[in-house]
What we know:
Helices cover 64% and strands 0% of the residues. By secondary structure, it is mostly helical. The radius of gyration is 33 Å and the shape is extended. The two termini are 17 Å apart.
Amino acid sequence: MGKIPQYFRNIAAKSPVTALMKPETTVVQSNAEHKVPYLRLRKKDSVRKPITKTDMKPEVNALSVVFDSPSLADAKATFNSLVSSGRDIPSDPNFFNKILHSFSSVSCLQDSVLFLNHMIKKYPAFCPNHFTYHILLKQSCSLPDEQSLLPVTGILNLMKDSGFPPNVVSMDIAVRSLCECGGEERAVELVKELAARNVLPDTYTYNLLVKHLVKNRSISTADSFISEMKEFGIKPDIVTFTIMIDNVCNSKNLREATRLLSLLRVKEGLKPDCCVYNIIMKGYCNLNQGDEVLAVYKRMQDEEVEPDRITYNTLIYGLAICGRVKEAKKFLTVMRGKGYSPDAVTYTSLMNGLCRKGDALGAMALLEEMKKECDPNSCTYNTLLYGLCKARLLDEAVKLYKVMKNDTIKLETGTYGTFLRALCRKGRVADAYEVFDYAVETKSFPVVAAYSTLESTLKWLRNARERGVVV
Length: 471
């Protein structure tokens, strides 16, 4: 138990203390090693091209103009120096947009607007476009501690007065920027304001806002937004309901998922697709309700919704974790009949179910069957190793670990801790240290986490022995 892990011995061997005791040596290379080989120029290479006026005025690169200071005066001086330097200034508006973007990243919104006005006045050849004002729009939406839409509205009015009225892209940029900084309420308010100006969100912007509302606010807030947008002729689609159902299923609120499914059918006249049913099926899997998982599958059959590979994998997983492995295995045949070959996810789900029932050897037998159709992955091996340790089949677990080690398969946190405890339980502490070295070597997880697990396992073993507890 006092053995120093190999990982720390390697660090000690590389300690700079030994390097301090070695005298420094300076290697002097002869001039011969630095001789430049003689190159013979071809005749056409030896002809010097005449220097033109264009060659003497290199084009300016906008990426070289970077503002580190929020000072408007410094920004104006830099721009004045740039346009009066005699160098070629590109006519592309994107050149000036990059300069404005650089300054807006360090300045306040008001100074960014003033700097844009200065750029237009100082260099009349610069013609702003929608992207120019979108830089200011994004900045106005990203202001910290701003609770109103006044800055955003000000930029939208500036766009309109400058001949670039807000469009669908403007709305998308504003909504995304507001949602990124937690301003979902302001995003809803902005969408309604622009919709009143006949600027309606497209499907992507609409569903993006719904996604943020159900994730960061509440399902009722999303319902209110959907109802209000119907006044402008915008209705939810199947993607909208998929987003909402997925959110409530992740929070294990299957009653709300059922309500949304009914609303989708009856009120909106939409037909649930395979993706919607897969999400609901996954929700019941998380609740270990195998009967409900089967009920969803049967409903898909009744409504003639064709299952896909995800459907069968979810169904097999849901039945397996409930201990209904034999029933789950029957769907392997159904799956193949539909043209879907079982993959690593399918077999790993079955192995997980067998290990939960304590039949780790049955799971190992399934591994050989699996190799005939697909390759096991990291999750497969970790599931089996965990199951063998739980079943106290240490010799089989060690054999499997050697296979994993030979293929450099990383250990998962739960498997690693369970394996260490199984080894220490049998007094194989040296092997536990070796497993620690392997976990660090393969970067399965941070060194601190690996050592912390090893240390806690050794403390558990020592305390158990002191109390005379059989482990």
